[in-house]
Amino acid sequence: MKKALDILNEKYRALSAEERIRQLRSDFPRVLFTSSFGTTSAVLLHLFHEVMPDLPVYFLDTTYHFAETIAYKEQLTKQLGLQVIDIKPEEWKNTFTREDHTWQKDPDLCCSINKVEPLERIKTQFDVWVSGLMRTQNTYRDALHVFEERDGIVKFFPIIDWTEEQAKEYIEKHKLPAHPLQAHGYNSVGCFHCTTKGKGRSGRWANKSKSECGLHL
To answer: Which of 108, 118, 121, 198 is spaced 20 to 30 A from 190 at the CA atom?
Structure first.
C-alpha cells in the first residue's frame, strides 16, 4: 500500500486542486465525499460541484450541530444544487451521550459514537474518502500528504497544501457564503458543546489535549 500511495502522491503533488479532483475521477470509481459544512467547507463543495456535480455529499448529523451550521448546510445545498445524504449515529447510543454528557467525561468516546461509528458503517462501499483538511490547521495535519491510508481506506486531501488565506480568497472569488458563526469569532466549527470562539482550531475542544474528532487519525 505504501508504494502505491507514494506513486499517487508523486502523480498528484504538482497538480492544482481542480486538476487533482479531475484526475481522481479517472483513478477511483467509488468516491466517498463527506462535509462538515464548517467554515472552509464551501471551497471543496464548490470544487467538486464544478468537476463532479452528481457526486453525493455525506453529512454526519451528530444531532449536536449549531443551528447556524444546519442553516449554512441548507443554504449551500440550495445554492450549489447538492445532493446531501445525512448519516446519523445509532439512536440509543446518541441518546446515551446526551443524557450522560459524554462530551464532558470522555470526548473521544462521544466522537466515536456520533462520528466515527456512523462512517465506519458505510466506508467499505468506497475506494477513496475525500476530506478538506489543510496542513496549516494543526500540527497533526501538517504532516499529511495528498493521499494517506487510514483504517483500510485511502484518504484524499485535495486542498491539503492550501492556506486559510487561500481558502478565504477562493470563497470570496466565487461569491460563496461564509459560515454564519465566523462573524462572531468562530474560525472552526464543530459540535456546539465542544466549540468555542478562537483563531484557527483553537476553539475546538478548548483546554483539552484533544485536537481531532477521530475521523482522520
So the answer is: 121
CA distance 57 to 65: 17
Rounded Cα distance between 216 and 129, Å, is 10
- For residues 156 and 154, give the distance between their C-alpha atoms in angstroms, rounded to a whole number: 7
pLDDT tens digits, 85-128: 999 999 999 999 999 999 888 888 999 999 999 999 999 999 99
For residue 156, report the phi and psi dihedrals to the nearest 5 degrees.
-125, 120
Residue 215 backbone phi and psi in degrees, to 5: -65, -30
Other CB atoms within 10 Å distance of the CB of residue 99 = 8
Residue 41 CB neighbour total at 10 angstroms: 24
Rounded to two decimals, the pTM is 0.88
SS3 content of the chain, % helix, strand, coil (to 5): 45, 15, 40
pLDDT digits (tens, 9 = 90+) for 70-87: 999 999 999 999 999 999
**What single string gives the DSSP state of each residue in 23-44?**
HHHHH-SSEEEB----TTHHHH
What residues act catalytically? 213
Strands annotated E in 102-208 = 128-130, 147-150, 153-156
Asked if 189 contacts 202 with a C-beta cutoff of 8 angstroms, the reply is: no
SS3 85: strand
**Domain 2-194 belongs in CATH node 3.30.365.10:** no
Q: Buried b / exposed e across 167-178, counting CB within 10 Å, b at 16+?
A: beebbeeeebee
